[in-house]
Amino acid sequence: MIDLASKDYVVIVQCHIVKERCPGYFCEQAFHERTGGFAGYPADKAYRSLYITCGGCCGRAVQRKLTSLTRQLEKREGIGKDRIVVQLSSCMTKDNFHGPPCPHLDYIKTLIARVGLDVREDTRISDLAEKRRTDGVWQGKGCDGET
Ligand code: SF4
Ligand code: SF4
């Protein structure tokens, strides 16, 4: 169980391929409103945040990006790894309009663990997308089920 109140810095990792067409608004909105994968974050705490992509299949760039980030945060602001949490976007973790979950999800989580960071799944989760997952239907367009 990750103590989210003890975190100060949230890194949202998004699918590089999906981000070729998605601005990432629904991820940002979910974080702002503390919904979906962000429901566990205290609403009254202000977090620093950064949005990055996996760098493309197979996601290996995540390790280099996060290693660089953790070094900079420690060096410049004294923010240690224990105060950082990584959140994987729903387009990576869930079946959705863009396709099935990332085939490299476990690999990417392993990379993040090797960097020494806590990692969580999901960002935007819509009721419509949940219904489509249940029904096995993907005829809409947009993020995690928006039309
Ligand atoms: S979860 Fe949705 S908003 Fe976030 S990056 Fe993926 S497609 Fe875009
Ligand atoms: S590794 Fe996964 S998250 Fe990254 S671009 Fe490929 S499918 Fe998307």
Secondary-structure-derived class: alpha/beta
Q: Helix share of residues?
A: 25-40%
Portion in beta strands: 5-15%
In sequence order, what are the helices and strands, one letter per element?
EHEHEHHEH
Number of strands: 4
What's the mean pLDDT score?
93
Radius of gyration: 15 Å
What general outline do the C-alpha atoms trace? Answer: globular
Distinct ligands, ions and cofactors found in the model: iron/sulfur cluster
- How large is the count of helical segments? 5
**Strand arrangement, largest sheet?**
2-1-3-4
The separation of the N and C termini measures: 34 Å
Major pleated sheet: 4 strands, parallel
Low-confidence stretches: none
Features:
147 residues; binds iron/sulfur cluster; 4 strands; 14% strand; alpha/beta; 4-stranded parallel β-sheet; single chain
What is the fold's blueprint, element by element?
Elements: E1 9-14, H1 25-33, E2 48-53, H2 61-77, E3 84-88, H3 90-93, H4 105-115, E4 118-121, H5 127-135
Parallel strand pairs: 1-2, 1-3, 3-4
Helix pairs in contact: 2-4
The structure holds iron/sulfur cluster (2 copies).
